[in-house]
Inverse folding.
C-alpha cells in the first residue's frame, strides 16, 4: 500500500510500485511526515505580510519578501502531523524568528500493529543554521529507525544507537562558515515494536535536553520522565552540587553538555520500556517542559484527549497550547504516541 | 557580505530591536580590493588642474603653485587627458590653448610645463567661472574618471548665487579635491566645493609644501578605476531613510543627494573609486512589528551609475525581541562612528563659538571634542585640538582656550575636523 503519489519526505513524485523515492531515497513503504515535508510545501506560500507570491529563491535576499521585506516564513511556524497511531505538533512560539525544532514521525506500512517511530530535535540557537541541523538529524534518525530490517540479530537498542550515530554524522557534514559555531542539535527518539500483539516494547534514545515522558493515569505503569537531560542543570543536580530549583534558575541551566553534530562526545542515553499498563509516550523539546515539567501535569493535559489509542493529535495540540498560553518563549515540539497494553490474563 | 568584481560590502549592526523599537543603525563598509579584475587603471581619465592666479598669489605662493602644478603634470600617466586652467575673475586655459584637453606624453608634459612657468598672479577670484570651464572640458569626456585639483589662496569674489549655480552644474561631471594655500581663504567655501563634488579639502599653510601635496593627490587620482559608483538603497514600504552618511575616511552627509531610481529605491552618488575602503552610517526608521518578526530593513547595493550593474550587495535586517540582552547591544562600528560624527560637529561648533567670542560654548564644545578624540583614538584630531586648547584632562574633556592661536592652526583644525579614524583593533 502506498500512501501518496509523492514522497512524503521531499515531495518528489513517486510511482505506485516504487520502494524508494527517486529524489531522496526515503523508503516509500513507510508512512511518514515531519518538519522537512512541511517546510518543502511552505516555501511555495505567499508572503504572510503582503501576500506577494514567493518567486525569488536562490537570491541572497531570497529569504525576504521582495515587496515588503518581511522575513519569509517557511511553513514551519505551526505544523500538525497526524498519522493516526501517532501525531506531532511543532510551533515557532511567540518569540523566536523561526522554528528551529524539528520532528519526524512515521510507521512501517507492513505489519500489524505497525512499528512506530518518532524523533524530536531542537537546534542549538547560537550556532550556524540550527534549523538545518535539527531537520537533518530528525529525518536521518527516522530513516534508520524505520528501515527494513536485514539483520534480525540487531536489537531495537542497537537500532536506536545507529540512528543517533547517523544523525551525528549527517549534522557534522553540514556547512559551518563564519564565526558562529558548527550546526548542532538535541535529539530524542522513540521506536515502538510489538514483539507480540498488545505487548509493546518502547526504545527511547536521547542526546541533550529534549525529553521523553511516559504519561499514564494508573499505577500499573506510573507516569514519569524517562530521560535524564544532558544539561548543565541536570548534571549539577545529579552531582549533588545544587538542588533542582537553584540549578534551573542559573543562566547556564539550559547549556547542553551533549549534542548531535560536530564535536559531540559521550554516548546517547538509551532505555527500553515494556509498559505494564496503557498510557501514552510523549516526546518534546524544552519549549514544552520548561512550562510543564511534571509528568502528572502533562498527563492531566494529554490523557483526556486520548481514547482507545486515538486522539494523539488532540493531545499534542493541547500540550502545545499550554506552552503557548504560558508564554511560548521557545519553539515547542510535541509528539504523542498512545499505547494500548492488553493485560496478560 | 558579498563580493563581485573586486568589491565587498560588510554590514556591522545589531539587528535586534526592542519591543516597539523603530530605529535601525548599520555601518556599511565598502571595499575595493587591490587584486581586482574590475577595471585596470584606465586611460579613460581626465585631469583638470585649476590654479588661482589672482593678485594675492604674488610672491612665494605663485612660485610654489607653478612648482606644484609641474609636479602634478609629471605624475600623469601616459595617455591620460589633462588640462591646466589659470583662474582669475575669469578662467583662462593655459594648456592646451583650445578649450579641449591634451593627452599626456613626454611632449605635451614639456609643453604644459613651459606654459605653467609663465603663470602670473594678476586679477580677481571668480571660482564659479573656473568650475564652469572645467565642466565644459569634462563634458567632452563622458564616462571617464574626471578629476580636478583646485588651488586657491583667497575668498571668492563672485555673488554667492552665481557661485552656487556654477557648482551645481558641475555635479556628476568631475570630482574635485580642493587645496587652500595660506590662511586667507574660507574653509566653508572650499568645503562646499569638495563636498558637492565628492572630493577632499585641505589646508597647505606653507606654500613650500604644495608640490608634495599635489603629487600625492595626483597619485591617488591615478589609482581610481571606476568613475561613477553609487549606493543603491532599497527600503520596505513603511520605512524612512533617516540618513546616509559617509563616516570614513571623512564625515560627509549624503542624505540629501538621493536620486530616486525605482520603487522604494534611491541612489546616493559616491564619485570615483580606487583600491580603498569607505564606511557609511545608514539609519532607517521602521514601523514596529511583533516580537519574533524579522524584516529586511534595507538592501544596500553598490552600482556603477548608469549601468544598473550590481558590484556588491549587503543586507540590513531588523528582528524584534523582548530579550533586552539582545536589543541593548550597540554595534561597535555604530557606536564608534556616532562618536566620530559628534567629534567633527563639536570641533566646528567650538570654533564657530570661539570666533563669535562665546568663550563658554567654545570651551565646552572643544572640551567635548578633546574627550571624544581621546576615547576613539583619533590622534590627528587630538593633536590639532591641542594647538587651540590647553588640555587639562582629556578623558573628562577639561580644557582651557589658548589665548594665542595662529590662523593656520585654527584653519587646519577646522578643515580636518571631518577626518575620522576607523574602529581600533579591526572590525
Amino acid at each position: 500500500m502506498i500512501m501518496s503519489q509523492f514522497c512524503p519526505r521531499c515531495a518528489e513524485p513517486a510511482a505506485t510500485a516504487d520502494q524508494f523515492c527517486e529524489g531522496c531515497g526515503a523508503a516509500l513503504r513507510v508512512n511518514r511526515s515531519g518538519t522537512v515535508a512541511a517546510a518543502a510545501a511552505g516555501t511555495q506560500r505567499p508572503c504572510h505580510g503582503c501576500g506577494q507570491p514567493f518567486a525569488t529563491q536562490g537570491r541572497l535576499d531570497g529569504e525576504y519578501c521582495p515587496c515588503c521585506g518581511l522575513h519569509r516564513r517557511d511553513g514551519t511556524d505551526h505544523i500538525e502531523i497526524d498519522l493516526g497511531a501517532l501525531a506531532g505538533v511543532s510551533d515557532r512560539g511567540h518569540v523566536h524568528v523561526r522554528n528551529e525544532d524539528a520532528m519526524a514521525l512515521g510507521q512501517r506500512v507492513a505489519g500489524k500493529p505497525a512499528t512506530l517511530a518518532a524523533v524530536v530535535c531542537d537546534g542549538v540557537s547560537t550556532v550556524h543554521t540550527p534549523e538545518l541541523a535539527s531537520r537533518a538529524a530528525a529525518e536521518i534518525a527516522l530513516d534508520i529507525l524505520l528501515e527494513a530490517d536485514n539483520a534480525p540479530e540487531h536489537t531495537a537498542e542497537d537500532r536506536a544507537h545507529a540512528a543517533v550515530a547517523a544523525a551525528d554524522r549527517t549534522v557534522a557534514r553540514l556547512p559551518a562558515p563564519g564565526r558562529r559555531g558548527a550546526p548542532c542539535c538535541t535529539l530524542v527518539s522513540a521506536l515502538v515494536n510489538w514483539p507480540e500483539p498488545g505487548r509493546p516494547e518502547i526504545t527511547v534514545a536521547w542526546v541533550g535536553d529534549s525529553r521523553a515522558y511516559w504519561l499514564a493515569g494508573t499505577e500499573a505503569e506510573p507516569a514519569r520522565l524517562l530521560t535524564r537531560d544532558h544539561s548543565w542543570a541536570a548534571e549539577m543536580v545529579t552531582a549533588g552540587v545544587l538542588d533542582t530549583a537553584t540549578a534551573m534558575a542559573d543562566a547556564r541551566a539550559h547549556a547542553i553538555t551533549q549534542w548531535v553534530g560536530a564535536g559531540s562526545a559521550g554516548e546517547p542515553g538509551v532505555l527500553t520500556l515494556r509498559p505494564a499498563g496503557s498510557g501514552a509516550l510523549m516526546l518534546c523539546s524544552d519549549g514544552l517542559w520548561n512550562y510543564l515539567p511534571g509528568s502528572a501535569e502533562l498527563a492531566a493535559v494529554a490523557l483526556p484527549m486520548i481514547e482507545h489509542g486515538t486522539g494523539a493529535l488532540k493531545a499534542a495540540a493541547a500540550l502545545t497550547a499550554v506552552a503557548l498560553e504560558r508564554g511560548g518563549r521557545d519553539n515547542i515540539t510535541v509528539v504523542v504516541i498512545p499505547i494500548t497494553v492488553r493485560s496478560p490474563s | 557580505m558579498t563580493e563581485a568584481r573586486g568589491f565587498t560590502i560588510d554590514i556591522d549592526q545589531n539587528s535586534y530591536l526592542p519591543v516597539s523599537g523603530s530605529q535601525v543603525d548599520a555601518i556599511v563598509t565598502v571595499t575595493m580590493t587591490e587584486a581586482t579584475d574590475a577595471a585596470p587603471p584606465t586611460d579613460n581619465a581626465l585631469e583638470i588642474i585649476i590654479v588661482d592666479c589672482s593678485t594675492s598669489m604674488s610672491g612665494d605662493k605663485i612660485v610654489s603653485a607653478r612648482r606644484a602644478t609641474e609636479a602634478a603634470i609629471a605624475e600623469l600617466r601616459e595617455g591620460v587627458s589633462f588640462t591646466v586652467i589659470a583662474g582669475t575673475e575669469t578662467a583662462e586655459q593655459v594648456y592646451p590653448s583650445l578649450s579641449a584637453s591634451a593627452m599626456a606624453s613626454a611632449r605635451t608634459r614639456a609643453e604644459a610645463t613651459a606654459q605653467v612657468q609663465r603663470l602670473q598672479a594678476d586679477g580677481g577670484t571668480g571660482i564659479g567661472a573656473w568650475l564652469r570651464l572645467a565642466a565644459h572640458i569634462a563634458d567632452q569626456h563622458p564616462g571617464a574618471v574626471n578629476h580636478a585639483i583646485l588651488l586657491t589662496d583667497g575668498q571668492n569674489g563672485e555673488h554667492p548665487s552665481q557661485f552656487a549655480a556654477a557648482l551645481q552644474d558641475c555635479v556628476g561631471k568631475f570630482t574635485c579635491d580642493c587645496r587652500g594655500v595660506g590662511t586667507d581663504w574660507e574653509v566653508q567655501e572650499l568645503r562646499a566645493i569638495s563636498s558637492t563634488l565628492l572630493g577632499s579639502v585641505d589646508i597647505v599653510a606653507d606654500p613650500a609644501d604644495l608640490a608634495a601635496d599635489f603629487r600625492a593627490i595626483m597619485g591617488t587620482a591615478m589609482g581610481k578605476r571606476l568613475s561613477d559608483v553609487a549606493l543603491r538603497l532599497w527600503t520596505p514600504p513603511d520605512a524612512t531613510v533617516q540618513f546616509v552618511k559617509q563616516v570614513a575616511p571623512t564625515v560627509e552627509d549624503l542624505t540629501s543627494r538621493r536620486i530616486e531610481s525605482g520603487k522604494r529605491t534611491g541612489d546616493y552618488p559616491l564619485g570615483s573609486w580606487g583600491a580603498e575602503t569607505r564606511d557609511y552610517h545608514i539609519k532607517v526608521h521602521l514601523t514596529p512589528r511583533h516580537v519574533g518578526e524579522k524584516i529586511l530593513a534595507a538592501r544596500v547595493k553598490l552600482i556603477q551609475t548608469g549601468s544598473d550593474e550590481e558590484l556588491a550587495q549587503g543586507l540590513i535586517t531588523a528582528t524584534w525581541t523582548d530579550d533586552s540582552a539582545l536589543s541593548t547591544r550597540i554595534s561597535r562600528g555604530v557606536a564608534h562612528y556616532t562618536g566620530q560624527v559628534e567629534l567633527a560637529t563639536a570641533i566646528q561648533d567650538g570654533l564657530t563659538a570661539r570666533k563669535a567670542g562665546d568663550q563658554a560654548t567654545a570651551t565646552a564644545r572643544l572640551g567635548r571634542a578633546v574627550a571624544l578624540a581621546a576615547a576613539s583614538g583619533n590622534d590627528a584630531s587630538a593633536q590639532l585640538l591641542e594647538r587651540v586648547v590647553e588640555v587639562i584632562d582629556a578623558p573628562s574633556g577639561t580644557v582651557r582656550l589658548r589665548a594665542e592661536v595662529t590662523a593656520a592652526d585654527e584653519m587646519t583644525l577646522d578643515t580636518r575636523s571631518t577626518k575620522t579614524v576607523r574602529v581600533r583593533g579591526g572590525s
User: Anything to note?
Assistant: The interface with chain A takes residues 2, 235-237, 239, 291-297, 299, 313, 315, 317, 319, 321-323 of chain B (CB under 8 Å). Chain B has a mean pLDDT of 92. The longest helix of chain B spans residues 332-355. Chain B has eleven helices and 21 strands.
